[in-house]
Amino acid sequence: MIHLHQLDNRPIFPSPHHALEEPNGLLAYGGDLSVKRLIEAYRHGIFPWFSEGEPILWWSPNPRGVLRLTDFHASKSLKKAIRKHDYTVTINHAFLDVINQCATIARRENGTWITEEMETAYYRLHAQGIAHSIEVWREQRIVGGLYGVVTGRTFCGESMFSLESNASKVAFYYLVEHMRKHRGAFIDCQMQTPHLASLGCTEVSRATFLSMLNDSHSHSFSHDVWQPSTIEVDL
Questions:
Q1: Using CA atoms in the order 125, 131, 137, 143, what is the torsion angle rounded to 10 degrees?
Q2: Where in this chain does the entry annotate a coiled-coil region (predicted)?
Q3: 3 state SS of 125
Q4: Nearest 5°: CA angle at 9, between 50 and 18?
Q5: What is the pLDDT of residues 171-206, one digit of tens each?
Q6: Which one of 36, 61, 123, 171 is most buried, by most CB atoms within 10 A?
Q7: What does the H/E/C string look like for 41-82?
């Protein structure tokens, strides 16, 4: 018999080590998507993932996909594409546009996992300076981007999109360079995919991930790191 923890109205989670092996990482259900609960979740390596019509499901998979900043692989073709298209890349200039674009991408057989409830919740996190977006522009048109949640010095990636070839990789490249500049720890990729693996994402055990996450909480980013701005990098 599978026992799954049901959350009540308190923003408290069971230990991630209690997550199920199958489905991998399912920890709890219920609760809400309040700012306080989401902050608590990400601080402990837990994230929500569910589809329309399902209860809120909370996950902490094992193994975990992570991108150590020193492991990031930017191919010559990616750098060439950046030079060729003369992109402008910004932070937090169009958070709603980014999450709306991400919500149009089908993640499961029954459609997107980014419900209206999720969009509203992450916009509240954004308004509190906790969720952030990276936007890729060409000729004043947004062509790619990503968004995620910052806890400590870790960026917990949630979703990315491309309207042009390589545009999401461009966003990822600029995010990595921005975090390197400001002494970020690592990027939580949640689950490794072939696309993320090609960029340098590797898998670590849940215990290792939680240790890395805890270490990243020893320092926080300064306030200006995630202020709306244009990211400049050397290619």
A1: -80
A2: none
A3: helix
A4: 60
A5: 999 999 999 999 999 999 999 999 899 999 999 999
A6: 171
A7: HHHCCCEECCCCCCCCEEECCCCEEEEEHHHCCCCHHHHHHH
pTM for this entry:
0.95
| Residue 144 within a domain | yes
DSSP per-residue letters across 173-221: HHHHHHHHHTT--EEEEES--HHHHHTT-EEE-HHHHHHHHHHHTTS--
The one-letter amino acid at 31: G
Q: What is the domain extent for residue 53? A: 5-62
For the segment 207-223, what is each residue's pLDDT rounded down to a tens digit?
A: 999 999 999 999 999 98
Same domain, 204 and 106: yes
And the tokens for 165?
A: 């070839």
